[in-house]
Write a structure and sequence with these properties.
Layout: E1 7-9, H1 14-24, E2 28-31, H2 37-42, E3 50-53, E4 63-66, E5 70-74, H3 79-84, H4 86-91, H5 93-100, H6 105-110, H7 113-118, H8 127-133, E6 136-141, E7 144-149, E8 154-156, E9 159-160, E10 167-173, E11 180-187, E12 198-206, E13 213-221, E14 228-229, H9 231-237, H10 244-257, H11 268-290
Parallel strand pairs: 1-3, 2-3
Antiparallel strand pairs: 4-5, 5-10, 6-7, 6-10, 8-9, 11-12, 12-13, 13-14
């Protein structure tokens, strides 16, 4: 297959990486695992003049957990590492589960969560969980860093808030309060190696009575041009008592806020129904987790 010519660089440090990005800006694309990027290049959807391989940048690898601050995952960390990490399983089990649904084992050993997020696909597996966690992104460039809530990262279909010369450096998932949990649910045509028809991540936090909703977040995927939160539903669900009526209402409101399309995987109507069912199931699982069940 004929490819458009491009330069290839492999920096060993953040200083080298940032210098390359500063110099080449829009002409460069980062290669972490390549499971998305190389497909787009081969299909000539993207034609970067430079590919910067960050595989040898040690400062972009690793996971740290702090009971007070939460979980930090550096952008070059492989999805398989996230899937099997003891820290992730303890502090963010829903993320571990979502990571395990991404592609095949071979893909997960190559791919990164940063690539999954920066690719901007509305059906990305990890995005709804990160939305539910209220993850904060560290975005860096030569000379500085900034933090951005992940809910502000996707601007339009496959368009992100990264400015020229910037790169995604890390994810921070705030520590969960004692009466809170995050869960993930999805539906695909097959059990593996499938793009999700619908996926959802939910955050449920209860008051001290363990019955009243204190805070709630709903991250939805594959029901719009970007992953996004059902903010209207979230506002209406706060203060409700958690019972069968709450689960039903949560599903109804999430489905109402979904804006899916018909495509080869599912109809828009079926996606709305799936969103309702999956949201109910995810909140039920989150409630059971909080109650120790």
């Amino acid at each position: 297959m004929h490819l458009e010519p491009f330069e290839y660089e492999k920096p060993n440090s953040l200083v080298e990486l940032e210098a390359l990005l500063s110099k080449h800006a829009d002409e460069a694309r980062l290669l972490a695992g390549g499971t998305d990027l190389l497909v787009l290049v081969k299909e000539k959807i993207l034609s970067p003049k430079m590919i910067i391989d960050i595989g040898d940048v040690a400062a972009l690898q690793g996971i740290t957990a702090d009971p007070a601050k939460g979980l930090t995952i550096l952008a070059g960390t492989k999805v398989s590492t996230i899937e099997h990490s003891a820290e992730v399983k303890e502090f963010a089990p829903a993320l571990s589960f979502a990571a395990a649904q991404l592609g095949s084992s071979q893909v997960r050993h190559m791919a990164t969560m940063a690539g999954n997020v920066c690719h901007g696909s509305p059906s990305a597996e990890t995005s709804p969980v990160l939305l539910a966690h209220g993850a904060v992104l560290t975005i860096a460039k030569a000379g500085g860093e900034r933090e951005l809530p992940i809910s502000d990262f996707w601007l339009a279909y496959r368009k992100t808030a990264l400015a020229p010369g910037e790169y995604l450096k890390a994810f921070t998932l705030p520590a969960l309060p004692k009466n809170a949990a995050v869960e993930y649910a999805f539906k695909g045509l097959r059990g593996a190696m499938e793009i999700d028809m619908v996926n959802v991540g939910v955050y449920l936090e209860l008051e001290e009575d363990l019955e009243t909703v204190k805070e709630v977040r709903i991250g939805m995927g594959a029901v719009g041009p970007i992953p996004y939160r059902a903010v209207k539903a979230e506002a209406e669900l706060k203060g409700m008592k958690v019972d069968d009526a709450f689960f039903a209402k949560a599903g109804e409101l999430a489905a109402a806020e979904a804006t899916p399309i018909d495509d080869v995987r599912a109809t828009a109507d079926y996606r709305k129904k799936l969103m309702s069912v999956l949201t109910r199931r995810a909140f039920s699982a989150a409630f059971a987790r909080i109650k120790g069940e």
